[in-house]
Each structure stands twice: as C-alpha cells, then as structure tokens.
Fold each of these.
Amino acid sequence: MTDQAVSIGDGQPNLFAITQAQLDAAAEVLQLDPALHAVLREPMREMHVTLPVRMDDGSIKVFKGYRVQYNDSRGPTKGGLRFHPKETIDTIRALAAWMTWKCAVVDIPLGGGKGGVACNPKEMSQGELERVSRAYIRAVGRILGPDVDVPAPDMYTNPQVMAWMVDEYSILQGHNEFGVITGKPLALGGSKLRSDATARGGMYCIRAAAKVLGLDTQNATMAIQGFGNAGQYAAILGQKMLGATIVAISDSQGAIYDPDGINPYRAIEHKQKTGSVKDFTITGARPISNADLLELDVDILAPAALENVITAANAGHIKARIVAELANGPTTPDADAILYANGIYVIPDFLCNSGGVITSYFEMVQNAYSYYWDEQTVDARLDAKITPAFHAVHNRAQELGVNNRIAAYCVAVERVAEAVRLRGWA
Ligand code: NAD
C-alpha cells in the first residue's frame, strides 16, 4: 500500500482507507480467514443524525452528528466524541476502527466506537455548546449505555461536555447512569489521573522501548509536536517520569527549540497567557518551524498533534531513535516503511496513546462498583496493563520480522477475530 493508494484525491489520505489497508497487511501476515477479514474491514453499525439547535440569536441551526460502533465482539464499544467543523464520517470510521484495535491490543474487554458533531465550538457560546451536547445525546442515546457503547472526550470536547451529556442521558433514563460516559469531572464519577492518562501511558511505553533499545532516558532528549492535552502532559511527565530533557515543543502557530531544556510548566503558563508557545524564548529557546521540530536530532520524538505529519517527504530526515505516537495516525503508510528501513523505533499510535482508554475503562469499572480508587492504584493498574501490551507487540514484531505497527495489528486483530469466530459471526 502507498500513500497515493489511500488518497482521497486532494492529496489528503483517507484515514479509513489507511486503517483498512493496515488491517489488510496484518490479515496477510496472520493468514486470516477471508470471512473474518471481511467482517473486520467494516463498521458493525453507524448512526447519522440531524440536530436542530436553537442558537443564542433565536435562529435554528442544523448540525450533522454521527456515532460509529465498529465492533463489539469483545465488549461494549468505547470511543471519544469530536466536535469539529470538518468532521467526516470516514474520519470517525477510521477512529472507531483504531479504538477496536486499541482496546484489543491492551486486552481490555471493550470494542471500538467513535462519534462526533460537525460544528465549530470556537464560534459557539457555552449555552450553544450545551444545547448541541444535549441534542446529540437525545439523538443517539438509544444506542448508548454502560453495557452497549460508552463515549468519552476527544477533539474539542471536554469534561464539562461529558457532564452535560451524562446529565441528559440520566434524565432520559430516569436515574443516574454515570457509567455511560467517561472522562467526566471527578464530582460526577470521573477517575483520578484520567486527564494525564494518555501521556502517562505513552511514558510507560517509552520507558519500555528505551529498555529494549538500551537507551538511558535520564540522558535522553525529547521533542514534542502539539502542546494540548497530550503534548503538555507528555512534556511534564517526560521530565518527571523519564528524567528526559524536553528540548522542543510546538503548537499550530509555531515551535521552539532549546538544547538546554524547556521548562514545561513555564511554557504552559506562557501558552495560557498568549495562546501559543511560539515566542516563549525568554529562557533562551529559539523559534524553529514545525517541520524542523520533526527532524531534530533527538532521542525521542512525540507527535501529539495531528494525523499525517510524518510522510514520505520527511520520514527520511527523521533522526529520533524512538517515535512515540501520542497522536492518532501521525505517520502515513509510505513513511512507516521508511522509518522501519532506517531502524527508527516507532511505538504505534493505538498502543502508545492507549493510556486514555485504559483509564476510561477503569472509570467504567469504578462507576459500576460505585467505589473509587486513589491515584496510586490507578497509576499502578495502568502500568500493569500497558507495559505487558508493549512487550507483547515488541516480541511479536521480533518473531515475525515486521514493524511494530503490523505487530500491534496482529496482536489486536487475532483477539478480535477469535471473539468474532467464537460468537459465530464468521
Ligand atoms: P488538543 O486539541 O488538546 O491539542 C492539539 C495540539 O496540537 C494543540 O496545541 C494545537 O495547537 C496543536 N497543533 C495543531 N496543529 C498543529 C500543527 N500543524 N503543528 C503543531 N501543532 C499543532 O488535542 P489532544 O487531546 O492533545 O490530542 C492530540 C492528538 O492526540 C490527537 O491526534 C488525538 O487524537 C490524540 N489523542 C489524544 C488523547 C487524549 O486523551 N487527549 C487520547 C488519545 C489520542
């Protein structure tokens, strides 16, 4: 498969075509039964809804919403909700597929789902955002439930949006149903450590990768693309958990580089004040481009922003020893082959960023028992889930002589395929 083969024609790769092509590659390695392969290539269920919402000026605006339940053979579907003006059903299908493989690769008893509303939260008031959130739940609530499908925050949605949604769902049910959504505020049944869980899980993966590569993270340098939820916590925890020096960070407006290290807390403060890290140069950092950041000579590169940023055009210039994919889909298929050929160790997205869904699963368990864990318990259980998953993928890659992404697919697809087969679906 090449980047061109999965392009949607305007040069932008179609993410769902990429997920299907990645599955095809794993199916070939696994010699997967064609009927099972066919079942796993398509989403199990999709709901498309139209949401009429009253805006603050009294007008009615109509929004399109989606929920995709990709595969629930191993348990209720699980996956975030995105509020994005350019939301497309293919992006949501792709992300729902990745959630299926993500839950399977870390062996939690959940399937994969994803949803979203095409809207621009940056142009909406809090009241409008609340009405869109509630309208979405009224429209798709009939296919959600703690044992059916459990959403969570994703791009441009947050714990407050989850709070409105869990409230709306609870009103529809006539009783509190906290387990229907994760990523909730602590006061409404959220889990401790949920907010930094994606980056924290990524750090456990990097720690394990460094061990197999013989890299001392205490002396390692790290560059992070994207300075939002995943990127900011990656900077803090990269320093705290790994002892790494954060030498470069970026956001949509620009990047900065300081070989002596950037203080993540001060950078966050600066971004909160000015809206960007791009001119946080007071401590000696210098501005660089986002493209330069990816090509820095660092030990660890963590893409934590967008999809399709490491492509055939720049993969050959990447110098990092470890690429830790906190973002979903940052590397195109052509780039994957180049990184592998160059001996760059990629921790694939649906393993590297699975800390979020693992902790969401812990949140569901805590909601079901109405019994809440302390930080140490959540942290230890996250480590106990993600570190063995990393080693399962690493070992499979070594055994099969394939890259880590195909190995992660093999581990995950085998588990989902077994459940599908045992249930008699194929
Ligand atoms: P976010 O919206 O909080 O942050 C995104 C960051 O990327 C922002 O700082 C933005 O300025 C920056 N950005 C946008 N365009 C950029 C560009 N061209 N170059 C550099 N930076 C750019 O989002 P997030 O929650 O941190 O998610 C980031 C990625 O991680 C996404 O791919 C998401 O799917 C993935 N992810 C996040 C979580 C989570 O728990 N937050 C879980 C799993 C996967």
Amino acid sequence: MMTKETILKKYFGYSAFRPGQEEIIDHLLQGRDAMCIMPTGAGKSICYQVPAMAMEGITIVVSPLISLMKDQVAALTQAGIPAAFLNSSLEEDEAKEVLFGIRSGRYKLLYAAPERLLLPGFLAMCKTLPIAMVAVDEAHCVSQWGQDFRPSYLNIAPFIEALPQRPVTCAFTATATDKVRGDVIRILKLNDPFTLTTGFDRPNLTFHTSRPKSRKEALFSVLLQHRNDSGIIYCSTRKTVEEVCDKLQDRGFAATRYHAGLTDAERKENQEAFINDDCPLMVATNAFGMGIDKSNVRFVVHYNMPKCLESYYQEAGRAGRDGLPSDCYLFYNAQDVHTCRWFIENSDNDQLTEEQKKTVKEQDELRLKAMIRYAKTEDCLRRVLLEYFGEKAPANCGNCSNCLENYERIDATEDARKALSCIFRNDGRLGLAAVSACLRGEVPPSMEGLQLQSQTTFGLLQGQSEQQVRRLLTALIDSGYARAAGDAYATLSIADQERTALLFKNKETFFVQQRKEKKPLPKAESLSPRAPKDAQLLYRLQEWRKAQAAREKQPAYIIFSDAVLHRIAEKKPRTKAELLAISGIGEKKAQRYGDAILLTVLEFEAPKKLDPALKKLTPGTVLTNRKRGPMTCVAVSGSVIYFRENATGKVFKYRLDSSLSRLFVL
Ligand code: ADP
Ligand code: ZN
C-alpha cells in the first residue's frame, strides 16, 4: 500500500500536508469518522482524496453542485486518479459508461448528488459495491441553521444505514457555528467523529470596506489597481449585473456576466470565458461561484453588501486560492440593507415546513445584523470576521483597509474646552444632537424651540462637520469627561469636574483619533510579488498553458494552477528531477507536460544563443546531420534530445551544449 505521503507527492505533487490535513487523513485511515471545518481554499478535498486512494474499495463523495463535481473529477483525472460523477447532466450513454466502470471497479472516487442516493437503482447498485468511505462535502447544507439548507441532504444518513456494511463517514464544511456543527454530527449520524477546526484566517487576503459616493467610480479605481488581473464583481440583483457589465464593456474592459436570468448556454459560455481568462472580469449575482476553483482570482468586489458574513467570506474567499496576495472589497450603502431585508422576506423555499421557514427567517435577520456591523465598523476587519467565526484574533491585523488607513492622534484640547463649556451650561438638558447643533451654530427646524442661538457657546465650532463634532463629543464621553444619561433620551452632563478643570487650566491635554488623509494605494506593479524577469517567463508559461488548455478543452487551472507556474518561473527547472521537486507537480503531470515546460524554460534562459533550428526543436522536427543524414526528433527532455535516424530507424540520445548552440551525442 502506498503511504499517504507518497500519494500526496505522486498524484498531487505536494511534499507536505497543510495544517490539519494529516490528522484527518490518519483518523479516517484508522476507520474513525471525522468532521472537518476549514475555510474555503484551505484544502479540504485532499483530506478525503488521499485516504480514498489508500483504502480498498470505492469512496462516495456527496456534493451539492454539478459544476463542483465536474471540476473535481476533471482535476482528479488529470492527476491520474480514477474518478467519475453521476448526476443529471450526463447523457444516457455517458451514465451507462460510468455505471459500467463502477461495477468493474475502475474508480476510486465516485461523486454523486444527494438526490440520487435513495433512488432504487442507485441504492441497489451501492449495496453490491465495496464502499470504503462516504465523504460529505458542504456538509452544512444538512442544517436548517446553516445559510444553505438543502433538504436532499437528509437522504445521506438513511443511505448509509441501508448499506450492508457501514463505511467510514466524514463531513466537510466551512461553516463553523456550534449549532450547525451539532446538526452535522447528529443528522449525518457520525459515529464519535474526530473533529478538527483549522484557522479561518486567510493571511494573503487584504480586506477593504468603503461607502463610496459613486460605486461605479470606486469600481473603476479598483480595476485600475488591478490592471490585467482576474476578478469577480458581485452584485445583488440581475439588473445591477447587467448595468455594471455593460458599463465595463463600454469602457473597454473584457468583462462577462452570470446570473439566473441567462440561458443555460449563455451561463456556460460566460463561465468558460472567465475560467479560461478570455474574459478575466466576471460580473455576477451570488448564483456564480460555487464550485468554481479558479485559483488566480486576484480580487473580489462586492458591489452590494451580501446578506450575511458566511456568504461574504465564502464569496470574497474565491480570491487568492493560490495563496498569492489578493484583495477583497466591500462597497456598502444603506440601500443594500433594504435589498437584503427584501430578499429575506421574500425568500420562499417550498420544501420547508412553516416552522422551518420561521427559524430560517429569524436566523437570516441575525446574520444580516452582523453583516452590517462588518460593513460599518472602524475596527480591524479581519478581527471582526474571525471573531464572528468563533476565532480569536489580534486587535490589528495591519492588512485591512481599517488597519492600513492609520488613525492619527490630534491635539483637540481647544475644541474639547469649547464642547465641555456647552455641556456645562446646559447640564443635563440637551442631547448629543442639540449640543452639536449649538456648537456648530446650525439649528434644524426641529430644535428651534431650544433657543440655542442665545447661548454664549453658540457657533464656537462653526465650520466643522456634524460628524466631526459628534466624534469629539463621543470621545469626551468615552474618556470620562462627560456622560450621556437619562430616561427618555440621553442628555449630556459633565462627568468628571476635576479633570475638566485641569483641561481648562492647561494641565491636561485632550487627543482624538482622527483618520489620516487617505493616501493613494500603491500601484499594482509594486504590489506584485514577482520580479520582472520572472514575469516574462511566467507570461510564456501562461501562454503555453492557455494553448494546452485549449487543446485539451480543459480550464487552464486544471493543467496547472497559477501558483505552480509562479514556482516554475522562479525555480527555472532544467531537469525532470528539478521539475518534480516543485510543489504541485505530480508524476502524471511531469510525464505529460514536463518536456513542454522544460523547453519553455530553456528557451527563456538562453534565447539568443539557441540555434534557430534547435530552438524550434520539438518532436517531429527534422535536422540533417553531417554523418547520419536526416534525423527526426522524437522527444525533448530538458537539454537531452532523442533523434531517430531516418535511414536506419535507430534512436540516438543527444545533449545540447551549455551554449545551446550545438548537439553532442551521448
Ligand atoms: P477547499 O475545498 O477547502 O475550498 P481545495 O481542496 O479546493 O480547498 O484546495 C484549495 C487549493 O489548495 C487547491 O488548489 C489545492 O490543490 C491546494 N492544496 C491542498 N492541499 C495542499 C497541500 N498539502 N499543499 C499545497 N497545496 C495544497
Ligand atoms: Zn485589520
């Protein structure tokens, strides 16, 4: 039997497990059930794919989405792992072929939709199979407390119970609340599962929130910082998707769209254009993205605020799956709250009972509140997110818009004196709004009865904005000079006479935290993690990958992820062994693409020295050798090249010399 490390290296090309993966795999291999809570992009699939390869028999993977299954199976097949899926998208003969393959024991993994599990034909077949393991992906769908309840997930436990022998069962989700966790264990009937939660932090993501006056302009400014990058722009309605996408196309951006109002064919076509980087910008509703594992998404913009942080984190988390620095922007506007409420009120899932519907609505309302808090907070965004998912986090991450914007301390002693005078003279009589109106010297009609104009402190802070004065007053309350108290509405009074006196005698200074003038963000280039020379090679590798993907009719990332191309560009491998040492290149891929990659690197390293004839050397090229006459190149492996002598059919091994201009017989 292969060890888990061998499987990881041989098929996936990785030399080390990520945090948590190994523990889950070990427990599954010992026959213990497991539940695994990891954020999107952390690497959940490996946790069941590796043990599936090590176990006798087949693993059934329950997965909610057709696109998700299709992608996973394509990636596994590429890596040399026999896998298939069964769902409604297959033609009859395709399904027959798969069923035949299952019966003859061809596959190690079978992906199936939950709706299929209890169909008599499928169940009868499964009863005859050696099922080693059942893995449940997106397991939170089983809980009505989760944001994505799917009644068909309730089929899973009866399915497992109907099998003659209970397989090891494992569940995977990115949703971490206790209620959902409890439901997953209870409803899936996991047997004393080993439970693992890994950190939700995605350090390579920079979070930004803003409340732009014009969202369109804010979007263009993001696009300027992300020239040539691939990104997703989420909008809350189809109409907005249409508007934004049109606007982008008008301005010459290669953008495409995705929402439920398009035909199946349009959706498919647009999705593929995005995945293949023909249209690097995708404008979409939240219907887009589940199961899209495009690893080089460099930014995600939420043009509107989504309905909960679970959705937000999942959607924003589609940026930077390759681990490279990426940005997540949230544009917030009060109108968004109404839209979200409308969606909550009008969402209707016929499959739910009245009781279930009520629970779902209440939970949705609570989740919306947390979302609004995130959108409006001035605290560290990462901390707010992580705390919501039940994790501790440092006070300031230094890598979100709130942390980066840097507050500065301003001496506001003079203003504080003015404000405290006003509070003192109206001790316990005026609320915050009235004190502020008095100080600013601007009285709204509703306050005309208060006679503010006749006060000595009237207009002392003339020219300052309502917000500025409000912030000053709040800071005075927070630091204990003043207090807000009262029954009907809070009125302001002096809280600490002594300290207030010190302030007036110049014996104490009062500071406020004020946002610095916003510095323009650094240019995209300077954020880029790679050196310009590598970028050239990277570009060539990407061109090769694109062409190869087109030949195989596969999305580019299934061939190699961006992260792998980056590593190749950095390490510049010259031999197969060096290639295999690169993380993300398994044996199968090295076999299939190794020569093409080594040649690309070789050409890049010494383009000028390379003899034009040698430069074009690919299998099929014919060169004439002085001694041997015409020879046909049969294979290129780094600097080693195999030729077949046309006259005799004998194969010779040659090596390119270090100047890459001459061939030597080996
Ligand atoms: P999830 O299902 O948790 O969202 P995936 O299983 O799709 O995440 O994995 C995300 C990315 O991380 C994939 O590109 C995957 O190949 C990569 N990955 C997973 N495990 C490892 C590992 N041990 N080393 C390096 N990369 C890994
Ligand atoms: Zn922060």
